[in-house]
Amino acid sequence: ALFMIVPDFTVLVLGDKWLPMVTVFRLLIVYSLLDPLFVISTHLTTALGEPEVLTRIKLMQLVVFVPAVMLFGRLWQIEGVALAADLMLVVGMGAVFRAVRRSLPVATGRILWPPLLAAVIAGLVTTVVFQQFMSGSVLWLQMGLKGIVSVVIFGLILFLLERHEMIRNFTLLRHYLLSGRVRPGT
After folding, report:
1. Any long-range contacts for 16-24 (C-beta under 8 Å, 24+ apart)?
2. What does the pLDDT read at residue 182?
3. pTM for the full predicted model
4. What residue ranges do the domains of the chain occupy?
5. Residue 34's pLDDT band (boundaries 50, 70, 90)?
6. How many whole angstroms from its chain centre is CA 78?
7. Taking 70 as the threshold, does the pLDDT of residue 183 lie above it?
């Protein structure tokens, strides 16, 4: 939702003169969504007794980031710098996921693809709907509706893709709560 409302939010809060920062902000949203996954995965490598893997991954990220930031920064200015940061993070995530999979049976594709697909579809549908039916409406209303529509579409698609897993997890949670083994707030 945040990705979708960035242009409207920028105009409403900062003004038209800040519209050029929308692309940078969107690239930084990508970074801030992926970084927690990377950080948690790096903790797994340490917990698995392989802290040297993290050192190699950080070195790999440095080798990718330095030339990328110089080249992309020259080509696309601040947007290029943000893109270089995203690239560095994606390279690191790929390496850390590969390292974790050597020790743990983690299906990273199974974890990442459903929300990624849901986000892309929600973004595309929201964009088309608002370009066709809502262009020219009151900006704050448009921003709020974009947020709501994109969250609802994302949630529905994610539910369709993950419903069996969600139902299974809800059933397990309900079982544990009702059995008294797990109490909320403890």
Report:
1. 23/79, 23/82, 24/78, 24/79, 24/82
2. 57
3. 0.79
4. 1-106, 113-186
5. very high
6. 20
7. no
